[in-house]
Amino acid sequence: MIAGNQPDAIRPWPVHAVASSEEEIAEAKPGAPRPPWALVKSGFAGANTQLRLACLLWAINLVFALVVAIPFFHLLDESLSRSLIGQRSLRFPDANWLIGLLNSQRSFLDSLSATLVWIALFYMVLNALVSAGVLEILAGGSRFSFRQFFQGIVRHGGPFLRLFIISLVAYFLVFLLFHDLLEKGLNALSRDWYSEAGAFSLYWAKNILLAVILLGTVMIFDYAKIRVVLENSPRAVLETAKAFRFVRHHLRPTLLVFYGLGLAGAILTLAYLGLDALFAPTSLGLVILGFLVQQLYMFSRMWLRVAFYVAEMELYRERGH
Questions:
Q1: Nearest in space to 223 (alpha carbons), one of 125, 314, 129
Q2: Distance CA 33, CA 27 (A)
Q3: How far is CA 232 from CA 11, 147, 170, 239, 314, in A?
Q4: What are the tens digits of pLDDT across the range 70-82?
Q5: Where are the chain's structural domains?
């Protein structure tokens, strides 16, 4: 039997990579699980030590976005520069120009819709492989290196792709099941209501609850990925089942860590939306400034992604056995 597949062969815990004080190091000793807030804090500290990793994730997303966006920019540039109504739309939005653009490019847009599906699928596959490289670096507790990053992709790419396929099926089944249950439950609750405001509130409550459940499913697959890397296991189905069992046995800390970091993400998004509203594209300078703000937000999301993995990996190492 391969030693890396045995439960007791988990890689050593690199406390030095994330702890920022003697108190945190003391709390991080095996046998003394830290509270969720301390793990969230440690996730932020770990992400700060892996800024190069966050920069790589940001660069990958930027390049991918540019490749996808260039055809759209080319199409808009041709329409805006060659027609008078298009030039006027630079200053004042014009529905006639938009309708004319859609009609003139109908064949392009029809083929583009199918292409976008494949692009989205490719992005999700790429994201799964990148996650393997990220977790390989975090598991070792070392500084970022391209060699270790690509070693993680080669070593765990197969299991991560299988996890990706399993997760798609799981998200679909969870959505169908809970969407139907929530729909029936809320419809029964509001059957005798005559207030449109109340019905509207229940509609949003259903969507929020469904989003929370789906995010919980995402969290389970985070721990499945962590198990694949730490246990050096190729068994995606088995690790998914064990990740589900781990989350079920440690429901409170896993949820608090996940949604605590999710709250930080929501705050970052609200801050970005507030800043973005200040930069209306009325001049080249404001366009550039708005772009920089957007990229800063994208970097913060990649940084937060690293923080998620750090905190979840530490939680698993403390409570997984």
A1: 314
A2: 7
A3: 9, 18, 23, 11, 17
A4: 766 666 555 555 5
A5: 13-49+255-321, 62-104
- With beta carbons less than 8 A apart as the criterion, state whether 211 and 172 touch: no
Token digits of residue 135? 């977790």
Stretches in the chain below the pLDDT threshold 50: 1-10, 12-28, 30, 84-94, 97
pLDDT score of 110: 62
CB 310, CB 229: distance < 8 Å: no
* Two structure tokens written together for 91: 């200053």
Residues recorded for the chain: 321
Radius of gyration of the chain, Cα coordinates, nearest whole angstrom: 23
> Does residue 236 contact residue 159 with C-beta atoms inside 8 Å?
yes
Backbone angles phi, psi at 102, to 5 degrees: -65, -40
Q: Please tell me the predicted confidence (pLDDT) of residue 317.
A: 93
pLDDT at position 8 is 41
State which amino acid sits at residue 198: G
